[in-house]
Amino acid sequence: MDAYRETPLFKKATEIRELAEAIVESAPDDTGLDRFKARMLQTSKEDIMAHAYTIEAKIAGAFGMDLYDLQMENACLIRRACRELVVALRGLEMGGHSEPAHFDLVRNAVEEFRPLFAEWVATFKDSERLWDDWGLFNLPGDVPDHD
Q: Which of 25, 31, 51, 119 could pair covalently with 81 via S-S, beta carbons 3.0-4.6 A apart?
């Protein structure tokens, strides 16, 4: 049922979310900051949490389906969420919250996640797919499905 929760991939995603939560919770509030820094701090906190939760949610979603194109779509969103999460740490710094050692924990966890992710994506079966009208996940030689 929820076997994906026991995979190294999902466990690492959970670690990333927990680290993100700890960083966001330790960040100061925006009291006393100029408007730019206050907005940067608040937006970065929201972005970090959204990206951290997206990683876990999209892994769960991809484990629940067998269609290559939908799995790949989730994989793309996971990769983007990882990259954007790391970038959002800079927004915290610009907002006045700089914890390099804590930020490095997140960066390192994302780097440890990457090979697990690549190994997982390699298990997707491209024989189980639908025609992608957007053209992103069609393989050379594919032809559109006709009903």
A: 51
